[in-house]
Amino acid sequence: MAKGAKRVGILTAGGDSPGLNAAIRGFGKAALGHYGMEVIGFRDGIRGLAENRYVDLDSQALSGILTVGGTVLGTSRDKPHKMRIGDEVVDMVPTIIENCEKDGLEALVCIGGGGTAKTANRLSKAGLNIIHLPKTIDNDIAHTDTSFGFSTALGIATEAIDRLHSTAHSHHRIIVVEIMGHKAGWLALGAGIAGGADIILLPEIPYSIEPVAESIRKRAAAGHSFSVVAIAEGARDLQDAADLVAAEALVRSANSAEAKAAAKKHRNSVLTSHRGNAFKVAEALEAATGLESRVTILGYVQRGGTPDAQDRLLGTLLGGAGADMVSRGEFGVTVASQGQAAVPVPLSEVAGNLKTVPLDHPWLEAARHVGTCMGD
Ligand code: F6P
User: Fold this and answer.
1) Which terminus of the chain has a lower count of CB atoms within 10 Å, N or C?
2) 223-278, pLDDT tens digit by residue?
3) Among the listed residues 212, 132, 143, the one whose alpha carbon sits nearest the alpha carbon of residue 176
4) Is the per-residue pLDDT at 312 higher than 80?
5) What pLDDT score was predicted for residue 48?
6) Could you tell me the pTM of the whole model?
7) How confident is the model at residue 5, as a pLDDT?
8) How far is the CA of 127 from the centre of ligand 1 (A)?
9) How far is the centre of ligand 1, averaged over its atoms, from the C-alpha of 77 (Å)?
10) Where are the extended beta strands (E) located within 219-282?
11) How far out from the chain centre does Cα 348 lie?
């Protein structure tokens, strides 16, 4: 691939999130209109790249998509080095490189979250000119203050907590609301604070049921016979968290392919046994407080639908900055959002580096200041 790209490919990979189309448009319009590049869009993420399925992204294709949810290109969670093709798992990296050469691409823009950063890093090391634009509702990408998708999901989850308050209040119930975020608690913490959840449980702070039950009993004694518990999907009690840490340590220390496979299998069974934590918490709280409990899993509602203003803005900003970087031949980077700026950060520093909530983060302090129980 040559420096100073003229024909560029773009794809969206991983889970969809609001703002993807704003970023496609932001990159595409700048690349086409400002730099005179040609842009093609691969269908369905890495799978489309491996199968060389693409569409031309001309100005008509880029028009009218700013406000649209999801991704007009489609997405998938495929990994290039182990892609399922029929019954086989195949390393498609060589095919991908061939396709990029065949298509005359001088750069490839990968829009996605943490998994996509790893993929982008892998493809960059394999010799492709790559930039990565950070999207995810989880907000867990290292070195970027915010990823697009987060703001919209935060608004949706906050509104859900607002709505759950009135029904919890009317029925004198505990409502446990499960919020996405994978291994990070940003979404649950942000929405929990903004929605005024009484208890917020995060992956970063393993919880015990008793302090949670005690805070609910205190609220009831003070005349508030209802409570809303915002629980991140990755939150675990002390025992489960310790089991997971031990299982992950086994994976890291395994020194043969066989031992690694066995350790991964064990780790996955530990993860599976932790599913349904929201239900376990609701049951335990009902038993410990005598208050009726209900569970709401917000699920995919959090990442569907039209992006809010903030995500449109961020997608447009990072997309345009990405086109600047491609024009300068600045590759192998994530276009990170830092303050008001879009900053190139080497992919090697971003890939595999999860941004979880630091225990001294001001949001945690804010939650504790208003009396929120964090389960510890
Ligand atoms: O990473 C975004 C996310 O929505 C996570 O919050 C969630 O754990 C995961 O994707 C769900 O993934 P899938 O779309 O594969 O079910």
Assistant:
1) C
2) 999 999 999 999 999 999 999 999 999 999 999 999 999 999 999 999 999 888 99
3) 212
4) yes
5) 98
6) 0.95
7) 55
8) 29
9) 10
10) 227-232
11) 19
Buried b (16+ CB within 10 A) or exposed e, 269-298: ebbeebeebbebbbebbbebbebebebbbb
Quickly tell me which residue has 């634009």 as its tokens. Answer: 133
Residue 108's H or E segment, with its range, is strand 107-112
Distance 70 CA to ligand 1 centre (A): 13
Q: What are phi and psi for residue 79, nearest 5 degrees?
A: -105, 135
Is pLDDT above 70 for 340?
yes
Span 309-321, mean pLDDT?
A: 98
Q: Which residues line ligand 1 (CB under 6 A)?
A: 15, 77, 113, 136-138, 180-182, 233, 303
Amino acid at 152: T
Name the nearest CA neighbour of 318 among 179, 112, 16. 112
Concatenate the DSSP letters of all residues of 49-87 into one string. Answer: HHTT-EEE--TTTTTT-TT--S-TT-----BTTBEEETT
Mutate to test the pocket of ligand 1, among 17, 137, 152, 182 (most ligand atoms within 8 A of CB): 182
**Is the C-alpha dihedral spanning 130, 135, 138, 143 positive or negative?**
positive
- Residues listed for the chain: 376
Contacts 24+ apart (CB under 8 A), 79-83: 79/46, 79/115, 79/119, 80/46, 80/49, 80/50, 80/119, 80/122, 80/123, 81/122, 83/46, 83/47, 83/50
Closest CA to 10 of 61, 67, 64: 61
Write the single-letter amino acid at 169: H
**Chain centroid to CA 371:** 28
Instruction: Select which of 16, 44, 78, 138 is catalytic.
Output: 138
Atom of ligand 1 nearest to the CA of 15: 14
Which ligand 1 atom is the nearest neighbour of the CA of 233?
8
What confidence score (pLDDT) does residue 235 get?
A: 97
**Bridge partners of 296?**
177
Q: Evaluate whether 40 touches 24 at the Cβ level (below 8 Å).
A: no
